[in-house]
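Lab notes, practical 5.
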Amino acid sequence: MKILNKSSFILAAIVGLTAATGCKKLLVEQPRSALYPDYFGTAGGVQAAVTGVYQDLRSTFSGEGIVWFYDGTDENIPGGSAGNTAPLYNSFKGITSSNTPDITGLYVDINTLNGVFQNSALITDPVARTQFVAQAKFLRGFIYFFLVQTYGGVTATQKSGIPLHTTFNTQAVSSDAPAQLTDIYNLIIQDFTDAAAGLPNTITSTNPFSAAGVGKSATAATANAYLAKAYLTRGYTEAKQPTDFQKAADLTAALIANKATYGLDLWQDYFDAHKPANDYGKENMFAIDYGISDPLYSNYTQQGNGGFGINQLYVLQRFNYVGPGVDNVPGVDAVPQKMGGSAGMVRDVFNGRPFIRLAPNKPYTMDVAFADQVHDTRYDATFQTYWICTNPNVTAGLQSDRVTSKGKLICTSSGLPGGATSPGQNASIVPLDGDTAILMPGADVTMARRDAFKGLIITPKQYTSAVFPTVKKFDDPRRTGILDLSSRPIIMMRFSEVYLMNAEANYMLGNVANAATSLNVLRQRAAYRTVADASLVAANAAHVTPANAAAVNAANAAAMLLTPAQLAQLAIPNNTTTTTSLCGMDLILEEYSRELYGDPRRWYDLARTQQLVRRNQMYNPNGAANVQPYHMRWPIPQQLINAVLTGPAYPQNNGY
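Output from the prediction step:
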């Protein structure tokens, strides 16, 4: 069955919120509302509806516009090519309803899912009905949870937020109003609870929302993980209930205890968690697909050069490796660094296209979160820190005396078919030989070390918004063209996050021992290195050999256990105001960074834990003076406000 595009079967499902998205025009052109009850009453129709929602999520999370997940946090600064809007988020200055992230178009999907619920009784197969409704329940809960974290809801102190729609609308309306935060969370929690009861434990070839057993549509474990996250998030809000943190702790503990039932586990080697071969493996719980050529799940077919995949996540945090020269010119070790001479790199397939939309915020990301690059493998597994020469025409660089030659870089032979003078676009894109043209060793070096190195060395003090270690964990080796984007899925929930949520919930309950146990599982996993991992990192990076692997890994595991000082810090309650001392939440948020850096999430982690203001004041000099508590909600988009034409005007969030 060919899956229809979402808009082709939801043309009449319009509400005031979505009138500004173009659907009103579709309503005029193709009014089919009378057909929908029958269409939703079939397994194929419901499957088309749910697949259409998954398809819409793909467009929501794939593009460079998602930089607002990262900007205005401790982890990232806008990259050198971030444009004009991203710096506003980072500085918390000039944010308005017209430049805010606008994801309210997801209400079309909510209405689609409401249509599934309204007509599900017409599906005669009870097994199919249970599966379809459970999947739709999860998706509605997922979307509402995403929306409420972004914009909030009405509380005793908040006058606006998102609206709540639970019925299927078949004609446009022009009025709407924000809902109570309590009611929004009640629906989210009920949806995730219902989904967990009806979804399968694992993905199999018989699941109606997998590509012949491949893919990561929601399972019972996914629903329970998000249920735990909903309780955890609500526990910090005005809508909190006394049992929220305990329920989050219990749900995550149950997922860990029953991981075999759900086919879940951590890879022993952190490097394995991000390898393409494991995208649908035991550690990834929920993913949005961009490359499975199966119309029942992804409805996406791979295209040719320049059209391979639509996932842009891998290009966002890539520095422009083309340009830096190899000469040791005066100022090569200054801040900012001066670069000159012949470039050792030309753009190639393996290193891809750099968008430079985001860069690591060095004072926190490098100096705090990833300070330990010896015992902890997560820095080496997350960041690319060396680039093999791809320019066969590079000339020898000069030493700092500006006379002595450093020697000509040897260009890689990989991807240079038929004697070509520039890197090729064949499948052999991994550099198998050649000299290192650019090295970021993670520490300061002497001028003697620079002069002895043929290429260019860039040290941490020289990192800028344009020059920085590239996030490599999203790289797609199946790309065949320089301009290709990625076909890999974006992982929205990893099993490692279950441990982090368990630690966070127990910390908020004052159960330091339980929190430490979950953190230590991840920390000790991060201590493990294999001999094969050495081929994935720079030669100067920590690595093991066959002879010392067992001893080094044992020593590293011991070193990664939380120390008495860290355990004492973990016992300090959540501090959301004081910037001159650390609390247990700081330690937990650092583990979130190390484990999940680069995933689209950090703004949400800081907003959830009430740490957005404090940690910006601690680590973000551009935003420190401007960030305010009201920034833990983004402004209601102007398109939403403009779409409400009758009744009371739609109110804006506090502060905007």
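Observations recorded by the TA: The radius of gyration is 25 Å. The chain has 22 helices and 13 strands.
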